[in-house]
Amino acid sequence: MEITVSKAEGRVPVHIIQLNGDLDGSSYKDLIAAAQKLYDEGVRTLLLDLAGVGFMSSAGLAALHILTKMFRGEKAPDPEDGWATFHDMGEISSSGSQNNVKLLAPTAKIIEVLDMVGFTPLYEIFTDRDEAVQTF
Predict the structure, then answer these.
(1) Which of 70-74, 103-107, 108-112 has the lowest mean pLDDT?
(2) Where do the domains of the chain lie?
(3) pTM to 2 decimals?
(4) Could you tell me which residue, 10 or 93, shows the higher pLDDT?
(5) Which of 19, 29, 73, 119 has a Cα-to-Cα distance from 37 of 20 to 30 A?
(6) Alpha-carbon torsion 55, 19, 108, 110, what sign?
(7) What's the CATH superfamily of 2-134?
(8) Environment class of 46 (CB within 10 Å of its CB; exposed 0-12, middle 13-18, buried 19+)
């Protein structure tokens, strides 16, 4: 998977992580590391560009969950904790929408996966990058 980080100026600075490739067991830790680096640098608004993601596995969903908790300022579970992470994912999916992580241009296939696990209500989903940036 290729990960590109950029920054856009809206009402506040917004960092964009663009993914190209599959978000799965071989790449999810790279996404978490890239987001953690931004968070450690003080970034609190993240737009995750999923236009180039063709497949998202359960590991990819766990990464998305961890990013959401991270940017909410909450302690995220260790992705190596297996079932504990998935139990925590069930709790977050019922906690309502959040404003720190938004999604850009996921394919219909990825939206179907997000719907299946109950993640869709957590995220504002956009098809236009400029519009998404202005909502932060």
Answers:
(1) 70-74
(2) 2-134
(3) 0.89
(4) 10
(5) 119
(6) positive
(7) STAS domain (3.30.750.24)
(8) buried
